[in-house]
């Protein structure tokens, strides 16, 4: 599962001081879901877009490598010590971010971690999120990704595939649309059509 965040910049000024009316589309964050128990793709992309990590992709790759290393491999003298130190530093950063993001993750105290890290991050930007799978809308070890997009101020979400998980199954799309975020669901005859779901999405976004 992957996510790319794109900022649309209008009316840029070129090097000669002239106004450029062309929509400039800049990738500001990207990520994928590296492993169960760690943030989803959307959150790694947000980590990068908000400056918490240099690259959401590299951060997720670090999780994959560091959590899959066997004791024998991790003690191999042939592994570059500098790379090990850099990976250890990145893992600490990710674990610290995960701890903050997961804090008070419950329906009774919704997304305080998401607010701390991402509240109004895109308030002055026009940002579209491209996700291969519908953002989740339920509480697990972390707040719902759909709710985090709302908190960050994402303007539009393009969904590649509706999540068949009964805990989601259209609920992520429904939550985003209820908060005024444009959702384009790939494969629909009308990409702007509202998703008709019977999912009870009871998430406090205040």
Short description:
This protein is an alpha/beta fold and 206 residues long. The chain has helices at residues 41-49, 56-68, 71-74, 81-102, 112-118, 145-152, 171-178; strands spanning 2-9, 12-13, 19-20, 24-32, 127-131, 156-159, 182-185. Helix 1 (41-49) crosses helix 2, helix 2 crosses helix 4 (81-102) and helix 4 (81-102) crosses helix 5 (112-118).
| Widest sheet: strand ordering | 4-1-5-6-7
Which spans have pLDDT < 50 for at least 5 consecutive residues?
189-205
Mean pLDDT: 82
H/E series: EEEEHHHHHEHEHE
The major sheet is characterized as: 5 strands, mixed
Number of E strands: 7
The end-to-end distance, rounded to whole angstroms, is: 28 Å
Structural class: alpha/beta
- The rounded Rg comes to 18 Å
**How many helical elements?**
7
What is the overall shape? globular
- Helix content range: 25-40%
| Residue fraction in strands | 15-25%
């Amino acid at each position: 599962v992957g996510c790319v965040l794109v900022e649309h910049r209008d009316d840029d000024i070129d090097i000669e001081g002239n106004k450029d009316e062309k929509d400039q589309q800049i990738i500001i964050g990207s990520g994928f879901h590296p492993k169960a128990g760690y943030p989803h793709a959307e959150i790694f992309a947000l980590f990068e877009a908000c400056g918490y990590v240099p690259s959401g992709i590299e951060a997720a790759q670090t999780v994959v490598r560091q959590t899959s290393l066997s004791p024998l491999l991790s003690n191999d003298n042939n592994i570059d010590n500098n790379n090990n130190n850099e990976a250890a530093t990145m893992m600490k950063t990710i674990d610290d971010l995960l701890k903050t993001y997961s804090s008070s993750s419950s329906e009774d105290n919704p997304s305080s971690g998401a607010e701390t890290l991402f509240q109004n991050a895109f308030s002055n930007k026009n940002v579209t999120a491209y996700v291969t799978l519908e953002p989740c809308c339920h509480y697990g070890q972390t707040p719902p990704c759909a709710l985090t997009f709302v908190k960050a101020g994402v303007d539009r979400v393009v969904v590649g595939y509706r999540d068949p998980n009964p805990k989601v199954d259209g609920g992520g799309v429904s939550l985003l649309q209820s908060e005024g975020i444009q959702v384009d669901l790939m494969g629909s005859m009308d990409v702007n059509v509202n998703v008709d779901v019977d999912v009870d999405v009871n998430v406090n976004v205040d």
